[in-house]
Amino acid sequence: MNHLDAAEEEHLARLTAADADSDERAVEAALRPRSLAEVVGQHRVREQLGLVLDAARARGRAPDHVLLSGPPGLGKTTLAMIIAGELGAPLRLTSGPAITHAGDLAAILSGLQEGDVLFVDEIHRMSRAAEEMLYMAMEDFRVDVVIGKGPGATAIPLEIPSFTLVGATTRAGLLPGPLRDRFGFTAHLEFYEPAELDQIVHRSAGLLEVRLTDEGSREIASRSRGTPRIANRLLRRVRDYAQVRADGVVSHDVARKALELYEVDASGLDRLDRGVLDALCRRFGGGPVGLSTLAVAVGEERETVEEVAEPFLVRLGLLARTPRGRVATATAWRHLGLTAPATAFGGAPGEATLFEE
Ligand SMILES: Nc1ncnc2c1ncn2[C@@H]1O[C@H](COP(=O)(O)OP(=O)(O)O)[C@@H](O)[C@H]1O
Ligand SMILES: [Mg+2]
């Protein structure tokens, strides 16, 4: 794995800032698996990506462009770094929001060297003009740089070295078709199983020299919202508790008490998740309610509700997305300690098909 210098690490930190705070960045960097073999879970993605990389290495050529999609904290940035590491190629980092003009992208592309891996985080947030330039660069390793304005403008073709683009997005569906089609390989990251998170917690505890019992680890894993970033975060918070209020060992009891203190519930729902469910049930009678209305009710961006909170709530069977809006399931009502109305989605057997999207 090539090491990132401080500036790159800082840059990367900003890219993940929505979900990782400053104290977290350094720790995350230390906890990141450095090779495919070290990656826990995501078996299918790991195997497929391994093949793509092996084949490229065997041919001595840059591999196809790779698109990584999935909710925050599941390992997109980690995999991008691993791809570069496994290819022994430098990783260049940027993000969609940083590319506001085609010129920004042209500057990045023309600075690439043969075989570089270019990581564009949040690629769905790039400007339209830049997207169009990117299609051409991905396919023909060439961009047209437009000089001047109006009728006198001329396009100067510029050759760029062959590179591998790794794009990350929380929603592959938000990418325009032509851009999506130019990725030779798309990996969708899924939430992790508790047993996999358990493995991650043990691994991180080893690296951070935290003493923990198997039961303590399982308790953290089961409340981590299917997300490695959260598992690592909870581990550190529980360690604090263990050091201050106990003998330093993360036991089952210590983990449970600490997580209660930090308001992580037994299903791992965080404050936003609960806020969404709460608004849905208490304010909107269980729905259906439109995404925008729901977002306003919890004081969050539409995108955050849709891309961060909802995937996990859907996965737990607490929320359903229907053509008429979001609805709370009977399980959601029960989760909040409320009585589900008889009409609640999932309240009667066989009802699910009625609301299927
Ligand atoms: N498969 C995995 N195995 C072990 N740790 C992981 C895995 N995926 C993610 N992590 C950990 O979770 C943290 C967040 O991962 P990251 O790649 O930054 O997520 P994303 O870019 O998808 O938001 C990383 O610091 C890493 O330590
Ligand atoms: Mg990331």
TrEMBL record:
Catalytic activity: ATP + H2O = ADP + phosphate + H(+)
GO biological process per UniProt: DNA recombination; DNA repair
InterPro entries, per database record: AAA+_ATPase (IPR003593), AAA_lid_4 (IPR041445), DNA_helicase_Holl-junc_RuvB (IPR004605), P-loop_NTPase (IPR027417), RuvB-like_N (IPR008824), RuvB_wg_C (IPR008823), WH-like_DNA-bd_sf (IPR036388), WH_DNA-bd_sf (IPR036390)
One term of GO molecular function: ATP binding
EC number: 3.6.4.-
Keyword Transmembrane: no
Cellular component per GO, a single term: cytoplasm
Renumbered residue ranges of the record's region Small ATPAse domain (RuvB-S): 193-263
Main localization (coarse): cytoplasm
Keyword Manganese belongs to the record: no
Region (Head domain (RuvB-H)), start-end ranges: 266-357
Domain of life of the native organism: Bacteria
Annotated DNA binding sites: 302, 321, 326
Localization, UniProt: Cytoplasm
Binding site for ATP: 31-32, 73, 76-78, 139-141, 182, 192, 229
Keyword line: ATP-binding, Cytoplasm, DNA damage, DNA recombination, DNA repair, DNA-binding, Helicase, Hydrolase, Nucleotide-binding
Task performed by this protein: The RuvA-RuvB-RuvC complex processes Holliday junction (HJ) DNA during genetic recombination and DNA repair, while the RuvA-RuvB complex plays an important role in the rescue of blocked DNA replication forks via replication fork reversal (RFR). RuvA specifically binds to HJ cruciform DNA, conferring on it an open structure. The RuvB hexamer acts as an ATP-dependent pump, pulling dsDNA into and through the RuvAB complex. RuvB forms 2 homohexamers on either side of HJ DNA bound by 1 or 2 RuvA tetramers; 4 subunits per hexamer contact DNA at a time.
Similarity annotation: Belongs to the RuvB family.
Protein name (Swiss-Prot/TrEMBL): Holliday junction branch migration complex subunit RuvB
Organism encoding this protein: Nocardioides donggukensis
